[in-house]
# Entry
Amino acid sequence: MPVSRLDAGIVQKGDFQLTSRWWINRGVSSLLVLVAALVVNFAIPRLMPGSPVDIFSGGVKLTREARQAIVERFGLDESVWEQFYKYVVNAVQGDFGVSFFYYPQPVIEVIMEALPWTLLILVTAMIFQVVIGYWLGAMAAWKAGSKTDAILQAVSLFVFSTPLFWVAMVLLYVFGYQLGWFPLGGAYTIGEIYESAWDQALDVIKHATLPVISLIIAQYATYQLILRNSMVAVLKEQYILTAEAKGLSKGRVKHRHAARNALLPMVTFLSLSFAISLGGSVFVETVFSYPGVGKLIFDSVMSRDYPMLQGCFFLFSLVVIAVNIFVDLIYRFLDPRIAY
Amino acid sequence: MRSELRKIDRFWRVYKKRKSAVAGLIILTVLVTIIVFAPVFSPYDPDAKDAIPFTPPGSEHLLGTNDIGVDILSEMIYAGRVSLIVGITAAGIVVFIGSLIGLFAGFLGGWVDEILMRITDIVIILPRFPLMIVMAAYLGPGVWTIIFAYSIVGWPSLTRQIRSQILSVKEASFIEASRATGAGNIRIMFTHVLPNIQGIIIANGVMEIMFAILTEAGLSFLGLGDPTQKSWGVMLYFAQIQGAFLRGAWWWIFPPGICIALISCSFNYIGTALNDLFGLKLGK
Amino acid sequence: MDAIYRITDLTKSYPLPGGGLLKKNRKVFRAVDKVSLEINSGDTFGIVGESGSGKTTLARLLLRLIEPTDGNVYYKGRDVFRLNRSELKKTRKEIQMIFQDPYSSLDPRKSIFNIIAEPLKVHKTGSLSDIHTRIVETLELVDLPTSDDFLSKTPGEISGGQRQRIGIARALVLKPEFVVADEPVSMLDASIKAGIIELMTQLKKKINLTYVFITHELALAYHFCNRIAVMYLGEVVETGNIDDVIQSPAHPYTRLLLDSIPPTEPDPDWLDKRFGKSDFSRNAEGCKFFVRCPNPKDSCLHFRPSLSEIKRGHMVACQLG
Amino acid sequence: MSLLSIENLKTHYYTDSGVVKALGGVDLILEKGESVGIAGESGCGKSTLALSLIRLIKNGEIIHGKIRLEGQSLLELPEKEFNRIRWNRISMISQAAMGGLNPVFTIGTQIVEGILQHRKMKKRAAMALARELLRKVEIDPDMVKNYPHQLSGGMKQRAMIAMALALEPDVVIADEPTTALDVVIQAQIIKMLRKLQKEMNLSVLFISHDLSILAQACDRIMIMYGGKCMESGDTATLFKNPQHPYTRALINAFPDLKSRRDKLTGLPGNTPDMTNPPTGCCFHPRCALVKDRCISEQPVRQEINGDHVVYCHFAKPLSEEN
# Structure
């Protein structure tokens, strides 16, 4: 039964390690995810039934020379390790091969054009999700056990169960086709000459509204449930009673004392939820034909543009790793109990 | 044994208190009955294409017809079977893999736990849908593709839940008590740890069915489903590409989505209720 | 009186977090630090100490629920840590344990019958009916109802005091000779606590048990035990017959403990006593109590005292003893 | 006119398993500079009394009774006004070692927060006051910058006391302040609390299940059982001449270091179920001297002498005894 260091009287001032320990740890785990993404990307096509050449050519009828070109291009005749080594070297330089569909543009260029749009709607949606989730979750927790609590939970569980792409379809149908309030798709009006930057921004916002709303509807519920449960647990803590006994206002007790502790589980969920919403972008961008990486993935599936498909997946993994490190930093900042 | 009956009775009395849980059970039973007895409820043969395409809902066709003149209501009822079966199978596999890894990691601890948890951490972080899409693209569309892709990616969250529950059970002193009386690890696992976590496995299993159904619908919507075995997702896929929007065919867009939402929501209500109930068991 | 348990230089240390990436120069926390004791058959041996003194770890070592870092524990002449699986299992029939927390020491999903029956099933003693009679017998021993309705209840349906009695019943159902009780009453209310202590005293007379009684309440040990060991930061600082240690404490820590216990009758000058300063920093080489000792000597800083006999059976680990 | 007077206070909780009658009519007087102990086992309502005083009862309410602080009736005050009394005039020390301090804020921030809520003061001045308070409770003032997890149990409890004394309140409620601490630290904290009480002429309501602590720390003690007062009086007479069978049982339940008692008397049965408390005297199911009258009739307040009061049909006032 190891006693905490404190009881054993071992804690000296400045006992906490430098943050280098944290960087090493973070670095190692991110590297692991990176390697995993690389291996997965490398392995999938090669594990599939059928000869690699057919797979890499997307099953298109090819002349002998074309087949030979592909074999050389992907070094399919070399040993697996050599292929992997070449693959990794290329990947590190951002070379994921050439896109079949957007030939001869390299995959990385196409993705880089599309990425900003995806991040625009995802990040905006995430901000709203967190705010709405916090607001509803705190309300439900404060009235724990009451009718409002039960109704809020029932509603958000139902909304969470609706498939994201269907929500997008309904919004598009109602607000796009029927009411015409919002454009039917795309990220901006093609060929439009804007008088000022503000008009352009307004146009982009109009195009992004429905996609963002669909993402919000699909995912705010998880934040609300996580915060509600952790807030309910926190409100039972002794230090909340102390805060109330100090005569602090309800708002201060709720939004300062309780929230700071209740937010921690929500923060840890941020990185996981970002990975999920990356998946969500595929649906939203497909329904609204929004030119992000999600739509790129859908199109590459249709056109069997494998290099593009794998490039998108690998890039998403990078984005997730970055978000992960960022979220970890926020967590360390919020919770002083963590040493490094 | 009397105590078993007593337990079920006590459980039902607490379960009954949650309106959402009861509602979930009702919705589920209604939908499943309709789906299972499809021939009885479905007005037409789901493959018959003899109606006029895009007829709006009316007395003939309660939910109208689609682009090739198939009655939407009948198609939807039969499509329910595919969605449900795929959902339950995929969830079953994921629960099996997830609990297995969770049990091994939780019980054996040490380096086994360390390695399994590292793998889980990696798989859980990788963006799920894009990874499934990549796999499905290579494997080619089809029901088994979706089940396979989901089983590869869907298990980590379940593993973490089960592992953390096992660890909290192992810390309880009744485990140490039974070790002190001479019981071996195997005996402790089966008589003490498993019964205390089976609740969580069931609760998570129910939730997994919801995730599986939603995933199947999503992948089918992207065209990775099996067009010959229509599920609700496949119906919406055809609605999307056959211009249901242009033709204003709302009766083709809304109903399948509502079905997916209703059945997923019923599993969600039941699963959340079970999770809260079984989660409390270990507390005082 | 033969020594049923002999403990020699028993140590259990835990690695502390930190200490470089390759975990080379890791600091070590010794929960139990070179403890040597003898427990005679028929004793009610008290082990007293504050939290972090290592008393619970020592209890778990006695029953080999955890493996030691060093030293050995002889039960009836054989080292418990050298026993193979089957020998250990056989020994476990004779040595049992009562746990502290009435809520987490009973499996919430099992009925009372199954909880108490488990040890019998583990050691395969007799048919189902034998088990039933043995359980009824044991429940009578601990003054609990024996109706079938009670036997089918789960821990959630009975009070804290009753749960603790079931914990005791479970420990006694195999007719052990030696029982380690780890703070059996510290989570109970005063009136119920006294009832359990009375029960344990009667049991000792009825089925002549040897107890090891772990507690942080010295007054309780004084009432219940016949021999005692006082532990401080993993070390035994004083041991002997209960009357010697309580009436004429030799170690300054024992005196400090005795002074700190509020008398049960109002006593105005209790508050004037000096209770030392609460400083937890640890003196690495010399006497661990040096920092809180009311009159430390310079030699105490470097010289770590070991247990030495000052009177027949009364030993103390202090130079001034 | 006494500092704090509580008359016939009744508080009920509304739970799934019915209405819990946690307080069934409690009276209490607290004079300036006096320390009153509330003793009782779990479920006797002592913590509910504390929460009722600062009106922080959750899923329950005070349904009857009067609480007066220096003559001012507290229960009728609107929430905003009563909030000004909280911490300013009535403050509370809870089991800090068990989580009474917020883990994500430093000790200094939490003390200053209580001060600035009620006093117009610059933050720097409030922090200086906080450091001074820590010195008063014998902790290194630099601890204002530390987080609760960096302090030992004893130090956390001292910081909690410093926080409660920040505004020099009229009444300090100490709810089981030393329960989770080791005996030596517990003695130090009690000694310090008594010293501060005398120095600052504080009135303290000391709540504990441990009768021996109250014997040393309090001028008067009230014994509670089943949400009601069984007996109350000044500490010396209560221990010399306990009238109520429950008080006697409670005193005998604590082992003593002076004489090795042959028998520790426990009580049969267990704490009453407060959703339907026993009829008549709520202690009758466990009382050795129970008679029919105890089961049918609730005992009425009986004065033994002066403020030594007992609620038992068979207690004998001092005059009749010899």
